[in-house]
Structures are given as C-alpha cells and as structure tokens.
Amino acid sequence: MAASKMPRILSKSNPAPGGALPDGRPLTLCTGRWPGVEFFVKSQDISRLTTWTITDSRHTAIVHLDGPIHRLETELQGAGKAWEPPMPGEVWVVPGQARYASLAHGRTVHYAELFFDGEHLARFTGAPAAPPPVRPLAGHYDRFLQTAVERLRALVASSQDLAQLSAQCLSQTLYTHFFLQYSGHAEPANRRKPTSTLPAETVRRLGDYVQANLAQALTLDGLASMAGMRPQPFLSAFRASFGTTPAQFVIEMRVRRARWLLRNTTLDITRIALDTGFSSHAHLSTTFRARLGVPPREFRAGLTQPD
C-alpha cells in the first residue's frame, strides 16, 4: 500500500510585524489544512468600525492573539450581547450553521480562525460516531488553545519537514481539545422543553450591571428583580440567554477582571482579589487555579517570560 502524503501547508506570507492592509481588509499571515482542521492567522486594521460575520457548516473557533479592540458587540445564534474589550487568549466558538456577527473598533489586531469538521470525528476515532453538538461561547479564555495556536503558527512558518509533521500532530491535538472542551449533549427534540430567553436589552443591562459591580455582593434575588422576574423563572431564562447560571457568570467575570488587572497593572494580588469581589488572596488563588490551571502569581510571572 502506498504511503499517504502528509497534508501540506497551503500558503504563508511574512509581512512586517504588525502589518495590515490599509483598506481594512484582513491580511492572511499564514494558513494550513490538515484532516478535519483548517487554520488561518490574520491581521486587520479595525480603526474604522468593522463588521465580522461567519456562517459555515463547520464549527469555528476564533482566538484573539493581540492588538487593542476598544469596542466589540457580538451576536451569536441570534442573541445580542455586548462584551468588554477582548484580551489575548479569549475564544469565540461558533457552532456549525450558526450565525456569528461582531461589530468591532480598535487598532491593528491579530487573530486566528480554526474550522473543525465534525464529520471527520468518525475517521479520527476509527469508530462510527455522530458529530456532537457544540455550544456557542463568546469571550471564553482558553489558555491551552492560545498556546497551541501560537505554536502552530510558528510551525506553519517553517519549511522543515519535521515542522510540518509536528504541525499535523498538533492540529489533531487541537481537534481533540475542541470537541472535548466545547461539545455538549443535546436533548432529543421531542423531549426538549422550550425555555424563554431574556430580552436583548435585559441581557445587556444585566451584563453591564454585573461588570460594574464585581466588588459588590451580587444575589440571585437582586438580579431577578432587575429583570422584573421571580428567581426560579429568571434562573431558567438567564441560563438560556447567557449559556450558564448567574453564579457561574459572576465567577467568570470576576476571574476575567482579575486576569486583566494581573496583565495590565502592578496591583498586589490581595488588592486585586478584593477589587474583584473575592474575600481574600486565597479565595482568588483557589478560584483562579481551578479556572485557568495556574495561580495568579504564576499567571502574572508567565506574562514576562521570554518566548
């Protein structure tokens, strides 16, 4: 039997660092294709208000790599949401056939797009398998995916055969990670009970309120009152609108704010803990490690380590 050929890098370019097309169109810095995975790294000047849209039969992960985004409003599967400016390593997950649209404004940004073909899963596992459903996410921090994308970018830029072999291996690791991390279990349609969602304006108002009051005590009753609802139906509507519970959403926002402060300020960790609603340094460290795999001190130290 003839040996199969290794999937090859499709194209690559090496513009000056920070380079972007002057008319605002995205500039593709590198791209690769392997079984079940297609990969792009792009640079784009978004100093003018820019619209990003995606509708693809494959699942998509968009990873923000660097560059300031001052404004970002995202619509994913019809639910309008406004998010704080992204930080490096944050991921937007768009399920196949879902509609994604964002309105962005900032400066020159770099980001990766990964397209995952769910039909490849059966060939990948060697057993019959229906493609699992993937849940939409916006602004979720994925440290592993960030690190792997940067490594894949470096491998794609190399012409060495071992680099291409490593890129293919890493692409399959990313494929596995994506479905382990972001797939969910859907109920059969005949058993699924319809759940009402919150109005878009209520979603925006709740998100803004939580983000502005992270250092304060936030309660289910208080949030439900803001929405004009009783706690139990509010809990269901919140989960249907945000994709998580109010408690988990608050924790996610507190950890995110702590991560921003660790990255952008020299505040001591105890001060950061109290400013983001944690009761102590230890409380922040425990939650931070559970979410990101490293304690705050190691996360901050890693930002200054050479590549």
TrEMBL record:
InterPro entries: AraC_XylS_family_regulators, Homeodomain-like_sf, HTH_AraC, HTH_AraC-typ_CS. PROSITE patterns: HTH_ARAC_FAMILY_1, HTH_ARAC_FAMILY_2. The keyword Transcription regulation applies. Residues 1-24 are annotated as: Disordered. Residues 204-302 form the HTH araC/xylS-type domain. The keyword Transcription regulation applies. One of its GO terms (molecular function) is DNA-binding transcription factor activity. It comes from the Bacteria. Signal peptide: none annotated. Keywords: DNA-binding, Transcription, Transcription regulation. This is Helix-turn-helix domain-containing protein.
